[in-house]
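Dear colleagues,

As part of the handover before I leave the project, I'm documenting each prediction I ran so the next person doesn't have to rerun anything. This entry is a single chain, and its sequence is reproduced below.
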Amino acid sequence: MSGGHDYPHDEMLYKSWVQVIEWLKEYAAEKGVHFTRESDFPDFIYRMERPYEVPTTLMAVSLSDGRGEPFFLASVSPRHARLKHVAFRIPGGHVHHHAHWEDGKGLSLEGKFPVTREKLYQIADRARAALARA
């Protein structure tokens, strides 16, 4: 371990991120909304050397309604960040959640709640409903 990075821990966070992406794609398909690739990791854009492979090029994604208005954003920390996390944000609001990989718990929101497909759908449903009211 060098430079303050915990590679096995980081690798688990990025594998969890891939699962989050899959759940968001499934959500979009089930709910008839749009899944959008927002940005890729700089590693893949600039071809920087990396000690292990990140399992996806996607660094940020969003869900949008039929008008193309994003109502839910999800992103993961870049590889150079010291304390990596997955962030969930509601555009136009102050609501955001951070999830970290915790040994024995997996990906957890605020260190307390496991990130499950159901939990993610619940957050996205609330965000979608909030946009519909705006």
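Residues 7-133 form a domain with the Metal Transport, Frataxin; Chain A fold (CATH 3.30.920.80). The helical segments are 7-31, 42-46, 117-133.

All the best with the project,
I.
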